[in-house]
Amino acid sequence: MILPPGMHFLAAVTGARKYLGLEAIPLPLQALVWLLAGMAFGENWISGWLFLLLLLATPPLYPSKITTVYGQPISPNELLAQAGPGDDPIDAGYRYVEGIMQHMMDELAAERRWLFS
């Protein structure tokens, strides 16, 4: 999430860090753009179309959890061993790695409790 400068300081000053465990106040940069666009529109500095374009060009972004998983190293010999007679070793190795990655993604998806977790 892109935050305006000072949100970490604001969390410390307001007590959000101590009482809520927040490293920063989650005020997205888009909210700042919307506020400034609204003020500019109210002062007739920008047209209604430009205001609408600014709103549509900066959709709200919400914090999300990113999980990184590392698999076991795969040796080149292991990749080459995946090719059967008449198979292209590169394609066979690619399918092997793709299968391993898909299995890892399926395991992560099974751990997910609901859509936004």
Structural class: mainly alpha
Largest sheet: none
Spatial shape: elongated
Number of strands: 0
Q: What is the H-and-E element order?
A: HHHHHH
Strand content: under 5%
Query: What is the CA-atom radius of gyration, in angstroms?
Result: 24 Å
Low-confidence stretches: none
Domain module count? 2
pLDDT averaged over residues: 85
Tally of alpha and pi helices: 6
The rounded distance between the terminal residues' Cα atoms is 16 Å
Q: What percent of the residues sit in helical stretches (DSSP H or I)?
A: 55-70%
Description:
The protein has 117 residues and is mostly helical. It has two domains: 7-57, no CATH class; 65-117, no CATH class. The chain has helices at residues 7-14, 16-20, 29-42, 48-57, 76-80, 89-111. The longest helix has 23 residues, at 89-111.
Please provide a brief summary of the model.
By secondary structure, this protein is mainly α. Helix content is 56%, strand content 0%.
Question: Could you name the key traits of this structure?
Answer:
117 residues; mainly alpha
Question: Secondary-structure blueprint of this entry?
Answer:
Blueprint: H1 7-14, H2 16-20, H3 29-42, H4 48-57, H5 76-80, H6 89-111
